[in-house]
Amino acid sequence: MKCDDVFKKRIILSPSRFRILNYPRKPVAVFNPGAILIGDEIHVFPRLVFDYYKYTSSIGYFKMKADELIYGNIPDSIGVEIIMWPEGREDLLGVEDPRVHLVNGKVWILYTAKGFDKNFDERKDYLGLAEFDLKSLKRLGYFSVDIGNGPFYPKSNKDSTFLDFKGNEAIILTRPHFEGKPITLWMGVADLENLVIRDLKKVREPEDSEEKLGWSTNAVKVNQGWLVGWHAVMKSDLSYRNGLAFIKSPGNFVFSRYKLCPRGLLEEYGDRALVIFGCGLLVYKGKLIWIGGVSDYAIGVFTSDFEKISVVRG
Q1: Is 1 a member of any domain?
Q2: Of 1, 112, 126, 290, which sits most exposed with the smallest number of CB within 10 A?
Q3: Separation of alpha carbons 44 and 109, rounded Å
């Protein structure tokens, strides 16, 4: 499947543009940012790396006027504050790749915690949930999965986003990895009080040309449903290609062709080449804005006219 790239306006923000306000080191990589729109401001939550030895990530925060970020009127120096960092066994190796949601005036972040099981015998990627009052942490925990035999933590769960909330539950698009099975897109029900995902249903399996899949971005509410980004890792060159899924109702999915792929030196070359990865999706003034990581080193802001995005027609 070819890449029908519709994101014509592309802005790259390299690590040299950022200064850390509450930590004395300079980042070597600033990438894979989650983002939300509040009024006319975009609140951005990038993944930060400060060394190449352990490559341990933290999550930062900054905000900017939406017009400045979208149209490239960006300061040469952007102040970022670290708001999440490794603090225990579950995230000892880093906190990564946030998907951000605004829920009842609070910021909820789904993210990957890279760490170990309780005896430090096995590496695990936990699906974490952090609740903030913008920057002040109020709650932190990790989702288990129940597939009928009681809750457990799979070896890896990541690349997830909430779709719809109802009381203490939410529809969640998620990507648990079950050993010996293809890495597949799933939908389930998230118990937000006990942090258990149940009622998993398979949404899409990798095609013959695809190594694995993941949900890339937060879900955006549009007039007749939701829009969310997804990605595939290609078997041919291990590049990441991104598409859009339109969700008319939970369980009713329409997937586009690939709509965003790395191109040219600035996007293709980095600490992990040939990658555009998540994590923020916004609609603003008739524009669809994908704010993602570029080859594990920089932030890319990719913009298209919303009216040109036809998921149904592909």
Answers
A1: no
A2: 1
A3: 12
> Is residue 310, in this structure, part of any structural domain at all?
no
Peptide bond before 279: cis, by omega within 30 degrees of 0?
yes
Beta bridge mates, 277: 293
**Number of domains composing the chain:** 1
Query: Is position 3 within any domain?
Result: no
Residue 189 lies in a domain: yes
- Give residue 82's identity as a one-letter amino acid code: I
- Whole-angstrom CA distances from 31 to 67, 251, 262 are 20, 31, 14
Q: How far apart are the first and last CA of the chain?
A: 11
Residues in contact with 144: Cβ distance below 8 Å, sequence separation at least 6, in sequence order: 151, 152, 153, 195, 196, 197
- Cα distance between residue 275 and residue 286, in whole Å: 27
- Domain of 230, CATH number, reads 2.115.10.20
pLDDT in tens, the chain (314 residues): 678 888 989 999 999 999 999 999 999 999 999 999 999 999 999 999 999 898 999 999 999 999 998 888 899 999 999 999 999 999 999 999 999 999 988 999 999 999 999 989 999 999 999 999 866 788 899 999 999 989 999 999 999 999 989 999 999 999 999 988 899 999 999 999 999 999 999 999 999 999 999 999 999 998 889 999 999 999 999 999 999 999 988 889 999 999 999 999 999 999 999 999 989 999 999 999 999 999 999 999 999 998 877 664 44
Alpha carbon distance 223, 229 (integer Å): 17
What domain range includes position 62? 14-304
Residues 6+ apart with CB under 8 A from 26: 15, 19, 20, 50
Tokens at 118, concatenated: 């309780």
Phi/psi of residue 38, each to 5°? -125, 110
Judged by DSSP in three states, 267 sits in: helix
